[in-house]
Specification:
The chain is mainly α. It has a domain of about 100 residues. Helix 1 crosses helix 2 and helix 1 crosses helix 3.
Length: about 150
């Protein structure tokens, strides 16, 4: 299946779903609101729409590069990718031994936006589709049931 280069494609082809891309986009936008990452924010605004394209790619790379300055002892791997955390430790890759970007984004969100991390329903800037999914996950984790 060939796609035109200008056509937005899901992040890493079919490996992640739209809601996963939306989450990455939302967390990246939140990271660039913080003083730690603001100076590295790309000029182009990024929509939280679940589509991967050049703007999302630029935001991923900018976050990864800046994370090396923010977390020099435990920075994410600057490879332009956001993979699912699948290693035994859950936060570091088995080969690179570097923090997964998604784990770094989650930690930033937890540390800088604890109320939203605990209860995404309070996020006024989160798209409703993402908010519903994240709220269901937060509730399931709070009560130990599957979402």
């Amino acid at each position: 299946m060939d796609q035109k280069p200008s056509t937005p494609i899901p992040l890493f082809a079919s490996s992640l779903e739209k809601i996963d891309v939306m989450l990455v986009q939302y967390l990246l936008n939140k990271a660039f609101e913080t003083s730690l990452y603001a100076q590295a924010k790309p000029v182009a605004a990024m929509k939280v729409d679940g589509m991967y394209g050049p703007v999302t790619a630029a935001h991923i790379m900018a976050f990864q590069r800046q994370d090396s300055a923010v977390n020099p002892d435990a920075s994410v791997l600057a490879d332009g990718r956001v993979d699912k955390a699948v290693s035994a430790s859950g936060i570091c890759g088995a080969i690179s031994h570097r923090v997964y970007t998604i784990a770094g984004l989650n930690k930033m969100f937890h540390d800088k936006f604890p109320a939203l991390f605990s209860n995404p329903a309070f996020a006024t800037d989160m798209p409703s589709e993402l908010k519903a999914t994240m709220s269901a996950i937060a509730i399931s984790q709070q009560f130990g049931v599957a979402a």
